[in-house]
Amino acid sequence: MLVRLLILTFFVATLHGCGGSSDEGPELVPVSGVVKFDGQPLANADINFIPTETTAGLGGFARTDNNGKFELTYVRSGSGAPAGQYKVTVSRRLLPDGNPIPEGDETPPIESPARETLPAVYSDSERSELTAVVEKGGKPIEINLDSKGTLP
Amino acid sequence: MFRDITDGSSNTLAIGESTLEVANGEPNPWGYRGWVQTGVDVATSGINLWDVVSGSEKVGTLNSWGQAGSLHTGGCHFTLADGAVRFISENVNLTVLTRLATMADGNATQVP
Question: What is the ipTM of this complex?
């Protein structure tokens, strides 16, 4: 009887350990927008949306095209991001020859010759004070930056 | 020191699960006995953030070293500072995970 009880206990403990979760991921809504710097469209800027408050998910990223436009990709794959509030960073790192770092380059910044060209209040994830709200059916997000580091 | 865990030892993560396979390097070795070890960062990358290969997730291969993840579906295990082991869902929001990952930020957040 004792042996049987022990076996049962073992099974219950094992089941608990591998219980897992059947939660579905958060719903993604499309997020597009434009980045301007001193009034001009900013190309090759890397954008990160970092969830704050009770916003679900792990955020999204994008790179602006030649017209400064972007469409967010969810970090777990898929386009868009969950609705909610975000801290935003906009970074534009250039190589010594003036070219932007290749999209998706994973060289750690400390090992890369590329240098940040935007003020830290836009580009640094610890210091950025840019924010955005993602809403279902929301308008394109306009991010206006300038060389003085003014916040919108 | 345990007295520094002012958010409460049952509200603070101490040890987190990670996977052997990572996309961009090596996982933390057993016992964290390397020269420089990073621990597990759950506050910026969440749980089970898999490598994304051409649009789809490569489940089981973490996006980067030093991240939390497991081969269990939907989350991973953590040991709290009081010794309890909890399974935490990968869908818990980053604000809650950040509060659990910090021991003295003033937010005594319970494990969901």
Answer: 0.84
